[in-house]
Automatic annotation (TrEMBL):
Record-marked site positions (Important for catalysis): Y141, K191
Note accompanying the cofactor annotation: Binds 1 Mg(2+) or Mn(2+) ion per subunit.
Gene: leuB
Enzymatic class: oxidoreductase
Annotated EC: 1.1.1.85
Protein name, as recorded: 3-isopropylmalate dehydrogenase
Amino acid sequence: MNKQIVLIPGDGIGPEIIAAAQAVLTKAAAKSGIQFTFETHLAGGAAIDAYDTPLPGKTLAAVRRADAILLGAVGGPQWDQVSPEIRPEKAILGLRKELGLYANLRPVRVPAVTANYSTLKPEIVTGVDVLIVRELNGGIYYGERMEAGMVEGREQAWDTESYSRPEIERILRLACQVARKRRNKVTSVDKANVLASSRLWRKTAGQVAQEYDDVRIDHMYVDNCAMQLVLSPKQFDVVVTSNLFGDILSDEAAVLTGSIGMLPSASLGDGPGLYEPIHGSAPDIAGQGIANPIGTILSAALLMRHSFGAEAAAGQIEAAVERSLADGYRTADLYQPGLTKLSTEEMGRKILENL
Ligand code: ATP
Ligand code: MG
């Protein structure tokens, strides 16, 4: 099986962390009998410099043909002065829209060896394994809005939240399908006691649940969920929610791990999936070879799992990361006395060795 992977290193630490992840992906693919062909393309600030646009036509054409996309990060202070229509971040929004990526998956795992980095007590976070599934194409981020203006003598502005049954069904089905490969539990999060869109969400979630009798679905209000995530996060397996609630809850859940450099994400639609670490381009440490490549390497694991159904390969990458951490290897962001400090490249090689 020959698969086309588009790499978009982007800006800042992007090229350093993508190089580490590419090596891991190549080895994991070979072990699982998949052959990858890589193509590298520009987006973000690098593309603005070269083509005066954050998302060049050549990159768009390549991602449309691709089987999966691995992205580093885009943006940085060099592009703070460019006009709003061509900001580097527009590249991500453009890719999401172009590829119809309606689901954003953020797994948050806390192995025992890194539990002490969290600001929460180790007994609360050790063994946490939550997957947040956020709806990415609808809701209040795309609803009708009115910018601030004078209405009856007072300045006003508004945004609207709207969800259709098909939008809710497809994200709930995806959540149930991924739960089947995990612990068969889905928590659907809404605010159905107040919002009409949430009442449709809850009703539809309950109906979709009947298609998956091996998956248990609970409903939770978003305010309670926000509290439960830091109070007893181990109760959760898959959490599925709207665009706005998912944005907030996934950042909150990321805090459980104690480091932004560790977390991967997958954005899925009907075409190729897009995989990237949750952090930005970290311009403050770019070019120094000290960035943590683990978020990107774990994104490569998600790529194997969700784009190619290569569950074994994904698990092997995750195990290689955990092994390397358990052996005491850390990049600078997670270094503590008594452990071994590695550069980005050395950490990548260590994980490769353990794969
Ligand atoms: P964006 O707007 O693109 O999300 P940001 O301003 O939120 O960017 P990041 O680029 O994510 O910020 O960086 C936030 C902090 O975390 C910085 O101090 C950065 O150095 C650090 N950081 C981010 N990613 C990593 C990483 N992979 N390894 C080490 N440190 C990182
Ligand atoms: Mg950020």
